[in-house]
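Q: What structure does this chain adopt?
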Amino acid sequence: VLSGPTIAREIALGMPAVANIASSFYPNALRLQKLFYNTNLRIYTNRDIRGIEIAGALKNIIAIASGISDGLGFGTNAKSALICRGLKEILRFANFFKIKEKVFFGISGIGDLCTTCFSQFSRNRYVGEMVGKGKKLKDILKDMKMVAEGVPTTKAVYKIAKKYKIDMPITSQVYAILYKDKNPKLALKDLMSRPLKEE
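A:
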């Protein structure tokens, strides 16, 4: 598994980046580390394939939420809040399935999450932005001609969270916006109106 904050356009332009390589057979990870490494791309090995795959999938849901925030014209405060609380949701999901937390605070976790939420080249963030601006999801996906993995991932994770009663309010609101045509402003109001609690 190759994962991390690696926007393809930036890699192609030779901009510096880091990534994780994980394998169920660790010597393979070491071989691939040497194969992919160059002065612009630093590769770290990792043994937690499940953690990396979960982090890589769930970060796309939060990226859609961040894009919706952009589309509504909100600023950095709102996006940072979504990233922080989104990471909390991702950890809650991971903890339920007994996945170690370490990977979520590294390159494939918070690193990839931040990149996907902030990059203008992130497909999932873009989908969210267009939804936030009032466009229909089916029209956005048709015009993109590319895959935005976060859209089906949102539905799958929402169903799992509902089945096992995992508290994932951002995911729930993104699901409602994408699949139930909920007004994004109402979704934000519902998120901000949740009962107050300690962090």
